[in-house]
Design goal:
Layout lengths: L2 H4 L8 H21 L4 H17 L1 H12 L3 H27 L2 E3 L8 E9 L2 E5 L7 H12 L3 E5 L5 H14 L5 E4 L3 H8 L5 E5 L2 H14 L2 E5 L5 E4 L5 H13 L11 E5 L3 H16 L15 H16 L3 E4 L3 E2 L4 E2 L2 E4 L16 E7 L2 H10 L5 E5 L3 H10 L4 E4 L20 E2 L4 H7 L1 E9 L13 H14 L1
Parallel strand pairs: 3-4, 3-6, 4-5, 6-7, 8-9, 8-15, 9-14, 13-14, 15-16
Antiparallel strand pairs: 1-2, 2-18, 7-17, 10-13, 11-12
Bound molecules: nicotinamide-adenine-dinucleotide (NAD).
């Protein structure tokens, strides 16, 4: 597949597509009701079909990502297939336990009853995904959606054309469309879907579109999971293992050419180690990608020319305001290329300090005291990730306690995504809700409270409220405290 084919005109909404969307949505209603009664083995059998359809297309998936993003095969295996297959394995091992009703003990006021929490499917769900990791960010949420017994309509991104085609094949092979259907298309298709009264909307994308999704959901009071983006900072203090810190940060920033929601957006480096950090960065980037990264087979491309120009504008704006170019700086928008680039001495008003970068440009900011960094982080919207590199546990603890972020790693970057026993999600501006492992089951099911009355004591509390009822009420009040 070629880069040029990837720029095929995106599918927009026409009358026929609008009719098909409605038809599928209506057909999923009866199926959603039927799926309420589906058993764990039946759901696992569906996940097994999905697993097979993915594994069979391993080579096609790698090829699609090369077509969409010029991405090296190894990065697709590590960042898309590994987490996806890992999450499927978790579901295989734990789904029965996750869906088992959970008993709770009676309170004083409910003595004589039994109670439990029963996870039930939400019903008809919508999954909208972005282009940067199109496979894992589409099928990742589909796993818990199916595991919980929901139907799903998927809308992939119009920018990852090759991946969308492979995803459509996978979904068609593994599911009937009245259970899981996929619509390719641009924002007009997304808007049409958002008008439908889904029970739950799972959206991964930008905070700007996240707002649109949330207000559309409000019209039907649909529940939402919003997996959004933002500016994720990294702090490297004077005690950090500099070689490890820089190697990991540089790799995570260059993975998929920086188009990763949990990539380091910008870096705070303690003055004492600033020069050392810079030197190591330059050395690593040159060793990995050569003098001109455009020739490197290990460095991905920007998704399209528009995004490459957006990054070029961020760079020009920062430099015109006095930022120093410390490494790289090559941009060829027509070839969708932006080189790994380091910037220093960036004025606070530069656009690059306010907009999510989503590319291989790394602003490096010197600092003297933790306080300055904590203040700057708290002055900005809450990030999806915050990373700290330090050997000083007290300082790490203080930073974690005094800031807020969707997730954090200590002396590591981006690995939280692979730990499926942790919830993955943002907070406020970077997202609402989470998924992965059991957290995905929470997102795609309603936790129904059930109380089963065995003994009936409440008869004594019926009107007329005589002395007996008053004594019983008083006793309940006393025992409950
Ligand atoms: P986007 O918000 O532009 O698009 C996401 C999806 O929404 C696409 O399918 C798109 O077609 C659709 N869409 C766009 N406009 C719409 C509208 N007006 N109405 C309905 N649907 C609409 O995001 P993107 O550019 O595809 O992805 C990049 C963003 O996603 C970044 O902000 C990144 O941080 C974030 N992201 C977050 C995560 C996460 O897990 N939290 C993962 C990847 C990317």
């Amino acid at each position: 597949m070629s880069q040029s084919a990837a720029s095929a005109t995106p599918v927009t909404l026409d009358a026929e597509r609008a009719r098909r969307i409605r038809e599928v949505f209506d057909a999923q209603r009866a199926v959603a009701l039927r799926l309420r009664e589906s058993t764990v083995p039946q759901r696992l059998a569906k996940l097994a079909r999905l697993h097979e359809a993915i594994v069979r297309r391993r080579a096609l998936i790698i090829e699609a990502l090369q077509g969409d993003l010029g991405r090296p095969a190894l990065e697709t295996e590590l960042a898309e297939l590994l987490p996806l297959l890992g999450d499927l394995a978790q579901h295989r091992a734990h789904l029965a336990r996750w869906l088992r009703p959970r008993r709770v003990r009676p309170t004083v006021a409910t003595l004589g009853t039994r109670a439990w929490i029963q996870r039930e499917p939400r019903g008809r769900t919508l999954i909208q995904s972005p282009w940067n990791y199109p496979i894992v960010l589409t099928l990742g949420p589909l796993i818990p959606a199916v595991a919980c017994g929901n139907t799903a309509i998927i809308k992939t991104s119009e920018l990852a054309v090759h991946s969308s085609r492979v995803l459509a094949q996978i979904v068609r092979e593994a599911f009937d469309e009245d259970e899981v259907a996929l619509f390719e298309g641009d924002a007009s298709v997304g808007r049409a879907l958002l008008e439908l009264p889904f029970d739950h909307i799972f959206f991964t994308g930008s905070p700007a579109v996240g707002r649109i999704v949330m207000s559309a959901a409000a019209q039907h009071l649909a529940s939402v999971t919003l997996e959004l983006g933002g500016k994720s900072p990294v702090i490297v203090d004077a005690s950090a293992d500099i070689a490890q810190a820089v190697d990991t940060i540089a790799w995570a920033k260059c993975l998929n050419a920086g188009q990763t929601c949990i990539a380091p957006d910008h870096l705070y480096v303690h003055t004492a180690v600033y020069e050392q950090v810079l030197e190591r960065f330059r050395q690593r980037l040159s060793a990995w990608y050569g003098a001109d990264a455009v020739h490197s087979p290990d460095f991905a491309r920007i998704i399209n020319e528009r995004h490459a120009r957006r990054l070029a504008d961020l760079l020009t704006d920062a430099r015109s305001r006095g930022a120093l170019l410390l490494h790289g700086g090559a941009v060829e928008p027509e070839r969708h290329f932006v080189s790994p680039t380091l910037l220093g001495e960036i004025p606070a008003e530069a656009h690059i300090m306010h907009e999510e970068i989503f590319g291989p440009l790394l602003p490096i900011i010197r600092y003297e005291h933790d306080e300055e960094v904590i203040e700057r982080i708290n002055a900005a919207p809450k990030p999806l990730a915050l990373y700290v590199w330090s050997r000083n546990r007290a300082s790490v603890h203080r930073i974690l306690q005094r800031t807020s972020a969707g997730g954090s790693c200590i002396n590591q970057v981006a690995m939280q995504f692979l730990q499926h026993r942790l919830p993955f999600g943002g907070v406020n501006h970077s997202g609402i809700g989470s998924y992965h492992g059991e957290w995905g089951i929470r997102a795609f099911s309603h936790e129904r409270a059930v109380l089963d009355a065995k003994l009936q004591f409440a008869g004594a509390l019926r009107p007329p409220y005589g002395p007996r009822a008053r004594r019983l009420a008083a006793a309940l009040m006393r025992w409950s405290q």
